[in-house]
Amino acid sequence: MNADEPNGAPLDLAQTRQRIDAIDREIQQLIGERAQWAQLVGKAKGELKAAVDYYRPEREAQVLRMVVDRNSGGLLSNEEMVRLFREIMSACLAQQEPLKIGFLGPEGTFSQQAVLKHFGHSIKGLPLATIDEVFQEVAAGNADFGVVPIENSSEGTVNSSLDLFVTSPLKICGEIELRVHQHLLSRSTRLEDIERVYSHPQSLGQCKAWLRANLPKAERIPVSSNAEAARRARNADDAAAIAGETAAHIYGLKVLGRQIEDRPDNTTRFFVIGRELFPPSGHDKTSLLMSVKDKPGALYELLTPFADQNLSMTKIESRPARTGKWEYVFFVEVEGHVDDARVSAAVAAASARAAEVKVLGSYPVALL
Ligand SMILES: O=C(O)C(=O)C[C@]1(C(=O)O)C=C[C@@H](O)C=C1
């Protein structure tokens, strides 16, 4: 790029805009061509029935990794570049029909933000009342995929999501990491007016210190989602909600306190759930559910095959098995894809020692 005239003088406004117009023409032409090629790739996959049959998360992850690799030294951040390319792929995939994605509604939740971050805007979002319903709608085929919160960097695991995997046949096909900024939203403009604060229990937990310092006397009322909190706060001057920016727009509330989360790196991790497993992308994780026979050293025995294969374990969490008192299942995450030789060898060895090993899914590691 050369933004200067050959003699070194800067271009004037009209000339610079002409250059931008010319570049836009090229970009538009290329996006159109890309859409045609995406359609041809679709045809190469054979006569398939629905959008879900064309979706390839492992390929999308590879495309976006290449975008990041090419972006070094660019003016736009990796996040921005990835967002733009996600939207292009989202539009290419939606040429016939958009994917249907279920999430914990109503409109304006962080789950909805996670959906748009991962799948782009060319989808049909299905806001559902509970996480349980997200699982049910995907299992029934009414949604192609679902997005459910799984853990927060300050508040820990969302147990209600994890427990649903114990009985569900669904698979984990992706993970999404979303930086979560919480705001105090109200119809009132005065902090002194606020006597009640509504929010999801996870969000109340993420803003504990701020609430203690700024609204020590206000009652904290847990509700089913942040958007539901915003909906309630819109009805009274003495009420506020803790929720994201989108909820402020949707429910017409003012921001009384901005970015009130206690930790500046507050991040929520979501799983994409679907009905089938996808092939490796080259940089994947595998989630497993394992139950052990009740005997000394059982958990140790179960985990050694992963150490033997030199696989790093990124998470382990125990949950009540609900089959008997003091019986547990373990959620384990390891690096790699279940089709990789080392992962499949470790899973086979663990299966021989465990009461049950269920592969919940192998999926590309969240990009940004
Ligand atoms: O490569 C493919 O399989 C495509 O269908 C193309 C494409 C793309 O736009 O790059 C579109 C949708 C898929 O989810 C993955 C990639």
Automatic annotation (TrEMBL):
GO molecular-function terms, A-Z: chorismate mutase activity; prephenate dehydratase activity
Catalytic reactions of this protein: chorismate = prephenate; prephenate + H(+) = 3-phenylpyruvate + CO2 + H2O
Pfam families: ACT, CM_2, PDT
InterPro entries, alphabetized: ACT-like_dom_sf (IPR045865), ACT_dom (IPR002912), Chor_mutase/pphenate_deHydtase (IPR008242), Chorismate_II_sf (IPR036263), CM_dom_sf (IPR036979), CM_II_prokaryot (IPR002701), EF_Hand_1_Ca_BS (IPR018247), G/b/e-P-prot_chorismate_mutase (IPR010957)
EC id: 4.2.1.51, 5.4.99.5
PROSITE patterns, per database record: ACT (PS51671), CHORISMATE_MUT_2 (PS51168), EF_HAND_1 (PS00018), PREPHENATE_DEHYDR_2 (PS00858), PREPHENATE_DEHYDR_3 (PS51171)
Keywords: Amino-acid biosynthesis, Aromatic amino acid biosynthesis, Cytoplasm, Isomerase, Lyase, Multifunctional enzyme, Phenylalanine biosynthesis
Domain Chorismate mutase, first and last residues per copy: 7-100
GO biological process, one term: chorismate metabolic process
Pathway(s) the chain acts in: Metabolic intermediate biosynthesis; prephenate biosynthesis; prephenate from chorismate: step 1/1; Amino-acid biosynthesis; L-phenylalanine biosynthesis; phenylpyruvate from prephenate: step 1/1
Sites marked Essential for prephenate dehydratase activity: 268
GO cellular component: cytoplasm
Compartment(s) where it occurs, according to its Swiss-Prot or TrEMBL record: Cytoplasm
CDD domains: ACT_CM-PDT, PBP2_PDT_1
Segments forming domain ACT: 287-364
Domain annotation Prephenate dehydratase: ranges: 100-275
Subcellular location, principal: cytoplasm
Free-text function comment from the UniProt entry: Catalyzes the Claisen rearrangement of chorismate to prephenate and the decarboxylation/dehydration of prephenate to phenylpyruvate.
Family annotation (NCBIfam families): CM_P2, PRK11898.1
Name of the protein: Bifunctional chorismate mutase/prephenate dehydratase
Species the sequence originates in: Tahibacter aquaticus
